[in-house]
Amino acid sequence: MKRLILLRHAKSSWDNPGLTDHDRPLAKRGILDAPKIGKFLESNNIIPELIICSTALRAKETLNLVYNEIKKNVKIIFNESIYNSNSNELVNLISGTDNDITKLMIIGHNPDLEYLVEILTDKDFPYTKYSTAGLAIIDFSIDNWLSITDTVGNLKIYKTPKML
Questions:
Q1: Is this structure's pTM higher than 0.90?
Q2: Residue (of 89, 101, 108) closest to 140 by Cα position
Q3: In the chain, what are the domains?
């Protein structure tokens, strides 16, 4: 079995219009929300073995706040393509994951993550929207990440900071 953990970056700030989109930091709400997701992961023993994170500042800041709560050593890779990717490119990224990894986390952006959930579960996203700091966990009955498109994943959990 493989488990994919998808985390949308926490709420970002629009206070400085001179910043590029890539360089926008988290807003105060995002700084408060991201640790809640980390605590949820830790308390439910949903710890990824590998985290692949967008290079956007808000995604990196989300990662740091979540990681501080996990209290485990997790390998982290920053991947610039997540920032400008689409859901099909994310599928390619996931399918290239080493098969020794059973729990993979992607920290990225919407609408790509929402579309990715729809592609991998073969269902419309079952919530109103994929909220900032929203966490989706999809389980697959596969042994090889290359097989991710050959099966339908099961959306096991969707949580937002407001739900916690």
A1: yes
A2: 101
A3: 2-163 (3.40.50.1240)
